[in-house]
Design brief:
This protein has helices spanning 12-16, 42-52, 56-61, 84-92, 95-106, 118-134, and strands at residues 3-9, 32-34, 77-81, 138-144. The chain has 145 residues and is of the alpha+beta class. The protein has a four-stranded antiparallel β-sheet.
Length: 145
């Protein structure tokens, strides 16, 4: 299964630097949320569409949406950006908004998550986004096979 660690960092350069050490972002240096199999391109754009009431194509066209920041030739791991729009939508979402989003998010066919974990995942992502916003950081995904 694909390893996806979502984390916040002060800049793209700092985020890409996590590739220098094996195993992804160090939880002692970064706010990290491990989410195996939650794709940073398709699934996150679908979530952005749900939270911001736009289409998948509109979400994918936004700056930083699933943008590869590291060397595309890397064989071990990559760093991919999460859009600021999604970060902000997650950071400002109320519990009720996350509950409303859970149903459509569960229906995303590219997502492999047990139904009982969907709302929990949204709350975890929202917490990561809130902390990132408070610290003026952006969100990223460390992706590895």
């Amino acid at each position: 299964m694909v390893m996806c660690d979502y984390f916040s960092a002060a800049s793209d350069e700092v985020a890409v630097a996590v590739l220098r050490a094996p195993g992804g972002p160090d939880a002692t240096a970064f706010d990290v949320l491990p989410l195996k199999g939650i794709d940073p391109v398709v699934v996150m754009a679908r979530l952005e569409g749900i939270l911001t009431d736009c289409t998948y194509d509109e979400a994918r066209a936004r700056p930083r949406s699933g943008e590869l920041l590291s060397d595309p030739e890397a064989e071990e791991a990559l760093v991919i950006s999460v859009s600021d729009t999604l970060r902000d939508a997650l950071a400002t979402a109320s519990g009720a908004q996350l509950e409303l989003a859970a149903g459509p998010f569960l229906a995303v066919e590219e997502m492999d998550l047990p139904p009982e974990r969907t709302l929990e995942l949204l709350h975890l992502l929202s917490g990561l986004a809130r902390r990132a916003t408070a610290e003026d950081r952006r969100l990223y995904c460390w992706w590895a096979l």
